[in-house]
Predict the structure.
Amino acid sequence: MKAGKINGLGQELIKIFDTTDWCKGVSVMKAGGEKAIKAFNNMSLTQGDTIITGKNSKATLLIDDDITLYVAENTRIDLVNIT
């Protein structure tokens, strides 16, 4: 599994954004949570959240309504230092 961190994004708003049926293998561990939940379209993400994509799945993140970040399959990304 690929892993990474997103650091120092400033005060941008981050959302999971996609209109296709990619969501089956994407989950989010909310900050302070103990269990991952299924991701959904327009789900807001905050500092401390973790995005996890499984096999044959992907996530598209929309940052501050103008930056798109594509997350490949089998990836884990921790959102840190979003201030």
Q: What stands out?
A: DSSP finds no helices and nine strands in the chain.
